[in-house]
Amino acid sequence: DGGYVIAGFTGSWGGPTSSDVWLIKTNSSGNKLWDKIFGGADWDVGRGVQETADGSYVIVGHTGLYGASSADVWLGKVHVTCVPDDYSCIQEALDGASDGDTIIVRDGTYTGACNKNLDFKGKNLTLRSENRPENCIIDCEGDGRGFYFHSGETRASTVDGFTITNGSVSGNGGGAFIGNNSSPTIENCIIKGNLATSMGGGMYIGNGCSAKIVNGILAENEAGSGGGIYCWSSTPIIYHCTIARNQAAYGGGICSNSTSLANIKNSILWGNSPDEVSGPATITYSDIQGSFSGTGNINTDPLFVQSGYWDCDTWVSGDYHLVHGSPCIDSCTSSISRDIDGEARPNEAKSDMGSDECYEAQEMCLVLVPDATEVAQRGRLGYTVKVTNLTGSTAEYDYWTDVTLPNYSTYPLSGTLFGPYRFMLSPVSILSQHLIHPIPSVAPLGTYTYNAYIGTYPNILKEYHFSFEVK
Fold first, then answer.
1. N or C: which end of the chain has fewer CB within 10 A?
2. pLDDT band at 41 (very low <50, low <70, confident <90, very high)
3. CB-based contacts of 202: which residues, under 8 Å, 6+ apart?
4. pLDDT, tens only, 414-424
5. pLDDT tens-digit map of 73-86
6. What domains are there in the chain, each with its CATH number?
């Protein structure tokens, strides 16, 4: 095709004391078409590559992972296809693949029958996005789910780097169904806004399954039981996952029956309704709202960039990255070398809980932590506001608020509910203040959104929102 294929190595994923083989395919102009990175925990280096008659690539190099010597010869073969370059849709690519193949899906939003209910059919292969989950979206359009594992797939069956959204099923597994002794690896995926009428709004993990879920965000999903994840007679491994703002009648975050045991580590379960965990689980080094017994666990607001909220009648999905000052930062040890964004772990002495390793680039951060999300007429709405100055200079700004009423109008119609209040922050410092608003006896019942801003009034630099109910 006139292009080029290059074999080499990179230290971007493995950290300062290791490297991984890096295979790159370009077009005739030298622009990257795809790349593939693979290797272990030691030095892995590609030295040469040759295309074979079947369109695969044979790579030769050396590795320090095996044997007693410092480097052993390493020989590997990989076959890579792309969607939509080689196949028009994802299921066609899966059907045309063989064990050991890699399928790369280009950036875009994938819809239609051939891009949902995706079935590996027992094959051990890798399906991954080209450029991370925010750029490669499987939109189920309110009918069906993203993935359907039911043929005894193993950990070698890998899904990497997709957003799965708008799934809806009458039954189990709104975003993904894993059953019948299947144990795939799901990594670096965002599973949000899915619905199952029975179990597992985000994901159902069924009988005999030991799926591995790594660097996942499962948020804003809904089910009868297990809003984020439901486990039925299964033993999943859940590492570095953020499970937030899911809801169900039972087990808002994760729900397990009596013969299941979820192994959860280095994760965040926060803001799920009615609870975070229901049923057996072993949880360590994780942030669990309401607390959960286990080594290294904490119970402190993780300080997401922005939780999901209502903007009038439109739901705005949350941003579940961590902000500077989060208690989840530098809080656990990990063998996972990168986060959901592809950034190296750890950033500091230890790794961060959840899917995100915090590399905070913002100069100013604003976060609000409500005392509760339900309040009565004549009650009090309390919250803690935290403003962080990450710059090396003193910062001076205004803080002000207003509120969106259940009829979608803004109160007050002009001016502010609070402020503008002028504050100063020293270099690299945090200002924290607890504020209270009384709720009038005539306040309409329904859903409100509290809106907070910093800047030079009325010009907005940063904003934060949270929704609450007056009942």
1. N
2. low
3. 174, 175, 176, 191, 192, 194, 218, 219, 221, 227, 228, 229, 243, 246
4. 999 999 999 99
5. 888 888 899 999 99
6. 4-76 (no CATH), 79-322 (2.160.20.10), 364-470 (2.60.40.3880)
